[in-house]
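Table 4 source record.
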Amino acid sequence: MATSIHETVLIGICDGVIDKKKNTSYCTNKIGARPDLLPVITLQHPSCALCQRGLSHVVQVYCPLAASPYHRTINVFACTNPQCYGKSESWTVLRSQCLDDCIKSSQNNKTTACTESAMSRTDWCDEADDWGMDEEEQVAESGVQMPNEGNEISSRLQELCIDGDHQSALQPINVPVFQPFYMSVMEESDLDGFHDTDHENELLREYEEREGVTVREIQSCESGEAQEEYEKATAKHGDEVFTSFMKKISLCPEQVLRYSWAGSPLFIAEPPSSVSQTVPCCAHCSSPRVFELQLMPALVSLLSSADTNSDISLEFGTVLVYTCRNSCWKSGSTFPVEEFLVVQPDPDQKLFK
């Protein structure tokens, strides 16, 4: 699905391995490792609905909404059992929130500069006005209103984070742990000046050879050029959705995450005829859920075991995460809220290996 012309999309990119000697926190955007819990949050480790194995932590995204007083983190988990690959039931997404006063109280009002890579903690939402909801905006016929798309996104990095005892979620010993990486963030609109690495160029070359079409031809045919060019540029597999997906990410094939709160997802395969009916309302406040982020195919190659003696992997095309539009949170709650996700298998998984 194409994004709106006014829609702002942020791109998450792998930004290096996290040193075992360095602590991360709830405000670290990262791949793998164990989730870092917000103060007062208690996590009952999730298990697979299909095989009952413990789920491995895939990504952590710190994404507070501008008009909200809450710190806000999203953690995505998945089952590494090959028999569960590509099935939404083997994944879980949890949203955790905590008031700043609770954090300050738990850390004795001590703050310090974060020591991890600054870009790994770029704000997805904090101070980004078109991802929050003012009190006036929450009053509408449905009880809520979409944020103003006209406001600008702040690219300023958060300089401080809360220091204190490093709190990481307890995880059963037998649950595989993925190697940890930082995620850096950039706006998709800034990708015009972004240069692909040799690896990404090789991925595109392999795709073009296999499908008998270049990305430039796809772009030309989709821009309305002659019909004969369109016929020549049709991918061998005939999957227009997948072709459109590849065209959209061609400027940055190594993107591991796309973020656009209340935006439009980028489907890798034909979506259900009615996505709005497929995505259930929030189980806690009955508010509609909105698209917030998705995991991208390039993430697959990064998901290897943190234990060199273990061999684990995960396969998917894209994972679409939908969250409560109100981002509802019960005062005093100490448990994460489970949100909704959809897993789409990759129609051509070999491209991202």
